[in-house]
């Protein structure tokens, strides 16, 4: 992607929802990957039922291009959804294809995969992450200060690596952060660009949101649940099914003005366990939150602006797909903090010089909003179909973007592998295994 944002080149169409195996060019893959291609060509995508997983527990819910969108008005009725309802994992085959491709071609990922496997064999990892979750759920002065300091450190180091927070060349810079708490990213941005206009939102503390610790008292924080911004996401009252389970508190008046634009958008919100939600929301909340941030963030970005998006599990299909789509309209870098995210799958997608005025960007916004409607009102079948990706589609997309994806991801996977290898719970497990082998 060139840096001249005024050229407005139209990227490839996003309308190719289904592809056929005979359309794959095997020479687009590396020599090692060719064996995967041949192996998978013998496997029918009509395999036994796929694994089941709940979207509420999904670590990666990035909105991408591929998968089927449900178009047009659906019947205004919807079966009641129970909390935690498990739906078939429609991306299973694409996920397996990504994993096999990486295991064959990327030494850093292969090492990480083996360390993860060792981690699954020990209860120490579960205990470690359980303690981390408990600490994150405790909302007190000490935890807020720690979280705030951590986010400032990440923001500073991310900016050093990518220059994402530098708005010095913008005449009247403006920043949007829809999940601002505790405020570390915004404070660092204001240090880099004093006088920058800030629009900040956060989940209310009484609804389980984090406390705000921002140093700049002039920043006005709007406390709201952004997944309820129905009008901003193109939803009207008529879209709500007659038997929608509820309760719901959708806002049918726009919060963001049609002409309100920003030069930098942070999309780093995630679902909080402390947030009490209606039962119907639980299975799809992560998807709805991600779609809201990316759709509204891109829609209200100035041409050539920057988006910083928190993501998880780089080796997932959804991560691969979202990175691929942003690479068609922006200059993309990936960043993982070497200390605070070293053993977790978290990382940031930094998209700069985004060609917001391109037809492709507008199509992505429209598609993400349509997916928000499906994630909010659609049946389980419609929701599963929205995410369905075939093995053949995954192979074609890897042929187009696999090499660039691997080049961007190697450092991310190495950082996590290094962190896991030196994690106390894994070291202890390795030591105990060695003792058992010695006794045998």
TrEMBL record:
It comes from the Eukaryota. GO terms for biological process: methylation. Residues 48-91 are annotated as: Disordered. Residues 172-327 form the Ribosomal RNA methyltransferase FtsJ domain. Gene3D superfamilies: Vaccinia Virus protein VP39. Pfam families: FtsJ (PF01728). GO terms for molecular function: methyltransferase activity. Residues 68-80 have a biased composition (Polar residues). Residues 48-63 have a biased composition (Low complexity). InterPro entries: RNA_MeTrfase_FtsJ_dom, SAM-dependent_MTases_sf. This is Ribosomal RNA methyltransferase FtsJ domain-containing protein. It comes from Fusarium oxysporum f. sp. raphani 54005. The lineage of its organism: Eukaryota, Fungi, Dikarya, Ascomycota, Pezizomycotina.
């Amino acid at each position: 992607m060139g840096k001249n944002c005024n050229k407005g080149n139209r990227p490839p169409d996003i309308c190719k929802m289904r592809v056929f195996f005979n359309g794959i060019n095997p020479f687009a893959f590396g020599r090692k990957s060719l064996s995967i291609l041949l192996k998978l060509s013998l496997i029918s995508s009509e395999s036994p039922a796929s694994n089941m997983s709940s979207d509420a527990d999904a670590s990666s819910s990035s909105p991408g291009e591929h998968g089927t969108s449900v178009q047009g008005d659906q019947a205004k009725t919807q079966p009641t959804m129970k909390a935690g309802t498990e739906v078939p994992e429609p991306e299973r085959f694409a996920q397996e294809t990504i994993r096999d491709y990486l295991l064959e071609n990327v030494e850093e990922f292969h090492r990480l995969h083996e360390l993860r496997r060792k981690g699954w064999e020990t209860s120490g990892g579960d205990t470690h992450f359980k303690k981390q979750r408990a600490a994150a759920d405790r909302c007190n002065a000490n935890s807020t200060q720690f979280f705030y300091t951590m986010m400032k450190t990440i923001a500073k180091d991310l900016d050093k690596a990518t220059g994402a927070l530098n708005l010095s060349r913008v005449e009247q810079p403006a920043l949007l952060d829809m999940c601002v708490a505790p405020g570390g990213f915004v404070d660092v941005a204001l240090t880099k660009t004093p006088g920058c206009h800030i629009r900040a939102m956060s989940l209310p503390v009484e609804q389980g949101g984090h406390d705000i610790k921002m140093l700049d008292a002039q920043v006005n924080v709007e406390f709201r649940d952004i997944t309820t911004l129905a009008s901003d996401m193109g939803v009207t009252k008529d879209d709500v099914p007659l038997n929608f389970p509820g309760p719901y508190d959708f806002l049918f008046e726009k919060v963001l003005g049609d002409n309100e634009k920003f030069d930098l958008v942070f999309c780093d919100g995630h679902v909080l366990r402390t947030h009490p939600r209606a039962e119907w929301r639980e299975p799809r909340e992560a998807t709805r939150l991600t779609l809201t941030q990316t759709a509204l963030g891109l829609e209200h970005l100035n041409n050539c602006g920057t988006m910083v998006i928190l993501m998880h599990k780089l080796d997932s299909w959804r991560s691969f797909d979202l990175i691929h789509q942003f690479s068609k309209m922006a200059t993309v870098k990936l960043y993982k903090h070497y200390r605070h995210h070293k053993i977790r799958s978290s990382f940031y997608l930094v998209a700069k010089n985004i060609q917001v005025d391109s037809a492709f960007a507008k199509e992505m916004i429209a598609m993400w909003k349509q997916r928000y409607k499906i994630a909010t009102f659609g049946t389980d079948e419609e929701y599963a179909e929205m995410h369905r990706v075939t093995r053949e589609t995954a192979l074609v997309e890897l042929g187009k973007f696999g090499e660039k994806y691997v080049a961007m991801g190697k450092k991310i996977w190495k950082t996590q592998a290094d962190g896991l290898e030196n994690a106390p719970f894994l070291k202890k497990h390795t030591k105990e295994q060695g003792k058992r082998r010695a006794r045998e």
